[in-house]
Structures are given as structure tokens and as C-alpha cells.
Amino acid sequence: MKxxxxxxxxxxxxxxxxxxxxxxxxxxxxxxEAGKALIVQVIDVQFASIPGVLEELLRSLPDxxxxxxxxxxxxxxxxxxxxxxxxxxxxxxKIRATVENENLSPSNSWLPSRSQSTIKRLPLPTxxxxxxxxxxxxxxxxxxxxxxxxxxxxxxxDGRLNIITGKKETGKSHLSKLLMVNLVGYGATxxxxxxxxEYHSLGMTNDGKRNAIYDKIHVLTPSQNFKLALNQxxxxxxxxxxxxxxxxxxxxxxxxRRIWQSLxxxxxxxxxxxxxxxxxxxxxxxxxxxxFSRYHxxxxxxxxxxxxxxxxxxxxxxxxxxxxxxxxxxxLRNTGSIDRQIVVEYVLGKLVxxxxxxxxxxxxxFAEEAHLYLRETYWDDIVTRMRHFGIFTTFITNQPDTIRDxxxxxxxxxxxxxxxxxxxxxVVSRAARVDAETVRSIARDLPxxxxxxxxxxxxxxxxxxxxxxxDIKTMGxxxxxxxxxxxx
Amino acid sequence: xxxxxxxxxxxxxxxxLKHRIQxxxxxxxxxxxxxxxxxxxxxxxxxxLLKPLHVENIVAAVDTSTIKIGDxxxxxxxAVRGASxxxxxxNYRYTRIGPFxxxxxxxxxxEVYSTLENAYFGTQKGSSRQNAPNLLQTPTxxxxxxxxxxxxxxxxxVNNGLILFDGSLTSGSPDTPTRRMEEILAxxxxxxxxxxxFSKMTSLRVNGxxxxxxxxxxxxxxxxxxxxxxxxxxxxxxxxxxxARLTREKFAFRVDIDKEIPxxxxxxxxxxxxxxxxxxxxxxxxxxxxxxLCTFTANEVLAMQHFVMRKFGLHVFNRPDMHRxxxxxxxxxxxxx
Lengths: 488, 337
Known about the structure:
B: 13-stranded mixed β-sheet
């Protein structure tokens, strides 16, 4: 390999046949005289612009478009040299860091010697060692191209905002399960908004047996094993549901506050009493109607109950998870859109409440397709306020444009699966922790189950990995019409 | 003489390269083998009208090419390649020989040339030494040697075919001795082949106009017969000269057809050629392929430079362009000189 050109922070390196280099590979451009080396990553491989190649290709085609047959007598054996030149490729490489005395620095303000530098592949284990990617709480993400393990530190997800994105069926949920299982294993509290019922078998092996974390998995299905009694609710959590999920106007909300206080004073915080009180409350008819329609929404959701025995204490699950680590899976699979928002509003409100009162230390929140249930104002909350409370969110989506730009810009880690759509790539490339070219070039060519890890978890060295397989029962598979149908 | 490529050709290449030399990169200049010949011909303005004859005949063609791939302290580094193409049963086939790379110096040019000539045509070493070209002519002369050998091989191997040469059937020049050309044509005739030579460029003029520009307003394909006055010795014309306009495009070429062939057979030969080959811009496709296949591309020049660097440890240096140095932006560069 030969150093050819540098434009901004892209090095162009001439590579010859036999030097098998692919997108995503790391190279070390070592200038021994300068005592420094550049770590660069191949983001694109193109044919080198060799003069005369077009003529070479064209002359073998006669008018009919078929190859002209013949014999080449090449006594000096020059044709291998022609092939060698023709097949030369140009590697476009992003400068990632400088190594000096085995220390890494992000500097790329120097230029290695074009004539003296040696260029060789940098094995990923060496890079990971240099970058100190492995930590005290290892999570094996998967295998890199050279069959070494990519291990990140669980603490690199702690206090961070993460995004897992890629098109359908590329392995996003699989990776999120892997992260969850590992986090739970390290005693973390994980809350999952499970939109498609994919996570409730996290505690089961593929053959249906219980695995090591079985007892740490708490699946809560709204209106089934996840119901609330009104007297368990804090007023501001319920107001949050009424205002944000059910869009209760401000005047009505004020009236509701008075009704709530009245019920609380009478120690009658039940659904039935609430309905009766609204009916008999001395207020404007429109306010009453507004309160009634929200009341019926709550009743119809099946999420609120007057039967205390049926009610689930989310707080109990959270505390249990706090003690020994655990995952609380909020199964939203068969929950309607409004009810989903009610549940999410409640869970987030309860989390904030528990975290504010230090009942909980921190929570790792995994939110799948969050745009389907997260209200507008929560997006900013999640990256600012909630983060300070200790809610560390991982968004999982196959529609990257549903996540706001500011989330991408503030994301600490992005686990990117394959995207071919230009628009999707455009959106993801707005992430602050990586350059747009890397995202566009590498993500487009990722095979299924391969992900490009970006951000703090990999010390800002984008690394492609094949996500490790797990012995967890697969759920959430798409229902198919033609399953078990034989053709013929 | 055998039809097998003389081993000496390869050996000579390697021998010439083994002297440790320094290579200066030079602008690539393709050298073809144009036939320039000052004559005062008469051109019969009455066209000989042609009708394509669709009788199955093999069409074969030969061409060679040479290129300078670099300068050395002592001389030049050149490459030569030849190609034979034939069309049979509607399919084109080819044999391409080379490239051969030679390091030609003032010291070895006579030896290189005479050794090659001897290897190809069994010429006495002493006689070819007298004909040794100057350094700049050597690439063309070596290419011509290879071309003549290929022409002879084709004449020996093809039966009842139409053999197309690039250039003319003029002989008597140092690189084309009359005896050699006569021998090639005789071998061809012996196997019932007819040789037709197409010149891409001609210097033959009538009243100051090139003969290929004096085209009557007549529907092609046709031939115009040129009558060239007896050339001055040692130049000998071994073919009858025609101007051939074979397609609608306003292109015409000088075509020489073996003199020993009866007149009617000459016309028939062109008609058979029209019936057996594809023509574009009045030029036969077989000959075009031969030309295309032997021509060097820039990519190949790089590969050959890579070869000599790897095999013989030569280093390429850029020779300063004196035009640029002396005249700056007004210098045209040596490529034009």
C-alpha cells in the first residue's frame, strides 16, 4: 500500500491486488522517522484511476458485444503486471487518531511521509487494546471481521443516550436484548417499552427452559397483570396522563385537581367515586364533559381498577430489580394507541418520582419505536432532565427520521445496522459522534446482523461487528399467511 | 524457418534489459508504421464498381505496434507487440504476440537488430549490420521485423484467404527488402491467398491533391485505379495501387493488391472482402481489430514500467521537460516536439 493523497481528514491510499482491505478495516500509517503513526479507517474502496483501462476493456468487445476469442503469447509474462495495475484500488480512509509512544490522541494535524511511511492493516484486537475499549464490566457485542471479540464496557452505556437503528430484520432487537441481558446481569434496572411483545421471553432459552435471569424478568401487560388503583397514584402522575396522553385542557385540569383533593380528603380515591364526583361536581358543563370523556378513557383502558388485589405495584417491581438487577418489560403489544400513551405516561411519571426520591438509583430505559407513544415534550426531557434524574435511554427504531435531530446530536452511542435508503442514512449521519461519510459508506453495505458501533462504547473508533448469537427464545416474529404451506 | 516464435526474440529482450540502467519516464508516444512514398501517379477517374461477394472466405489481418516506455542513460526502452486476427464462420479470433521489451542503446542497436533479423529471416549477420537503423528508428524497425514475420506466418498458415496488411506493398526500403516482401507474397499465392494492404495514410498526390481525396460522385463501394510511374530504384512496387471507397462515409484508403494476381481476381478479392467482413468508414473490421489488439494503452505502459522495475530493479525518474523549464507557460511540452 502507498500513501497517495490527503484531503481534509481523508487519506487516499493506493492498494494493490493481494492486499485485501475492505470497508471498515483499520490501517496503521507508520512514519518511523517522525516516530508517529496515523490510525485510519477505510470508508470506501474504489478502482484506482489508471489511464488506458477503458481502452483495455473496450478493445476486447467486438460489435456483437461478445468477447473476441484468442490466444495471447506473452513470453515475458507481462500480463500479470497489467492485471496488477488494472486491479489497483484506491482506499478512502478517515483519520481516526495518532499514535505516539503507544498513546492515542485525536490529532491529525501532521502529515506522514508519502515515500517513507509503511502502511499495514491494524488488527482490531490491537486497536481495541490501544483504545482501551474493554473495561471492568465487559459486554461481548459480537465478532469483528478478523474473528476477534468486540467487548464494550457496560459503564459506557451508563448515563448515556443510545440509539439502535437499522432497517427491518437486520438485528436491532437482538442487540437490544443482548445489552439488556448483560445490564441485568450486572445488577442494573432495565425498563423496556416492548411494542411488539418481543422481549417477554428474555428469561427463556431457545428450547423454552428458564435461563439464569428468568427470575429477574418482570413482564407487565397493561390491563392484564398491570393495573393501577387510583389511590396508588400520585396526583401529578395522573395529571400527566390526563393532560399529555388524554389532552385535558388546562381549565378542566384545574377542576380535576379540586375533585382529586376532595376524594382524597374523603379517602374515596376509587374509579367509581371519581365518576360520581365528576357527575355531581358543581362546574361548567363543558368542563364536566371534558372530565367525563377522560374518565371513560381511563375506565375503558382497563388499566385502572378499584380492585386493590388486582393492582400491581410498579414500584415493587422496580425495587426488586434495584436489589438484584432486573428487567421490567412493559408489554404494549395489544395495547391501543391512547392506552399505550396512558401506560407510558404513568411509567415515566413513576420512574421520575422514584428517581427523584432516590428510591431508585438509575434506570436503563429501552424504548422501541418511541414515536408511537412518546409525547413531543418528552424527547427534550429525555436528553436533558430525565437524564439527570437517572433515566438512561436507548431508542430502538427502524425509522430513524422519527427520532429528533437533537437526539442524534447528543447520542453517546449509536449501534447502526444496515440502511440502504439515502434519506435514512442522511438522518443518522447527523449524529455528532461520527462523520457523515462513515455512516453513509459503511452502513449501506452492512450485512444482516452486522452493526456499526459508534461512540463512547468503542472510544469513537467506528467498529463493524457481527452481533453475538444468544440462547434466548425468539418472540415477536411476524405472523405469516404462508407459514407451513407447501408449494407444488 | 519455422512458424514458432523464435526463442531468440525473448532471449534478446531479457539480455538487453539485464544491463543495470536508469529509466527516465517519457511522454508516451504511439508509433504506428505509416507508409510515406513520394510518387507522381495517375488516377483513373472511372470507378470500378463493386458488388459484395458472399462466398465464404477466411479474412486475416496483421498489425504491429511499438512504443517507447522510457529513456535510459544509454538509450531507450521500447516495447513491441503484434497481432494476427482472422474471421472465419462469422467469428473473429486472434493471436497476440508480446509485448517484447528491448533496451536499445547506440552500442547494442546493430546487434539487437541483426540478431532479430537473423532469427526471423535467416539473414546473414554482416548484411543486416549495414542496414542497422539509427536509435530513433529502431523501435519502428523492430516492429516492422515482427510484422513481416507475422505476415509470413499468416501467409503460410491460411489457405484460400484474403490477407490484409497494414500499409502498402512497397518494398526496397531498409526495413522491407524487396526479396523479403516478394517471398511473403509468393508464399501467400502458393496457398491461394490474396494479399491486400490498406494504408491509413498516403502521400500519393495528383495535382497536389491526395489520391484518397479525389473521390467521384458515385455510389460506393468502388475502386479507383492508380497508375504509379516506375519508382526510382531500389524502391519496388509489388502491388497495384487502388483508392478504395467501400462504405457511404466519405472515407477512402489506398489499397495495394498483389501485382501477380490477375486483374479480375484483384477486383473479386475486394468483392469477397466486402462479402466476408464488416466495414465501417471503408476500413475492414479484421484489420481494425489487429490494430486495436496490438496498440499499447497507457495502463500497459505502466505495467511494463512496473515489470522492468520489479524484474530488473530499474527506477523511474521524471526527466525535466526543457520546454517547460525554458519557456514556462509558453512551452508546449516535449510531447509536441
